[in-house]
Amino acid sequence: MLPLGTVFHGASWQRCRVHQMRNVLSIVPRASQEMLACVLRTIFAQPDAKHVQAQFDEVTRMLERSHPKVAQMLRDAREDLLAFRCPHPNTGARSGPRTPSKSK
């Protein structure tokens, strides 16, 4: 089997945030899940790549004390989780899912 990068040259991989969130929340006590989910969402709510990276660093630093396993899981998945803010090398378009607009 050929490596993904060979077949899809220049394509990026984005890990699903929902599945990553489920994986993270599955290893913390139920009482901490809501707070942790809110903190993690702040990473993805940033206006640009620079702020996303900075918030990711801040969140993982903060979680290192209280939830070191979570901090390590996030660091291990950093590149895949933050791919949504990286422009595509050929088109400049961002990768990742688009939220469909709702018509009323």
From TrEMBL:
Entry annotated with the keyword DNA-binding: yes
GO annotation, biological process: DNA transposition
Sections of the chain in a coiled coil: none
Keywords noted in UniProt: DNA recombination, DNA-binding, Transposable element, Transposition
GO molecular function ontology, one term from the record: transposase activity
Membrane spanning stretches: none
Pfam families: Transposase_mut
Annotated family: Belongs to the transposase mutator family.
Function: Required for the transposition of the insertion element.
Protein name as it appears in the record: Mutator family transposase
Provenance organism: Cryobacterium algoritolerans
Taxonomy of the source species: Bacteria, Bacillati, Actinomycetota, Actinomycetes, Micrococcales
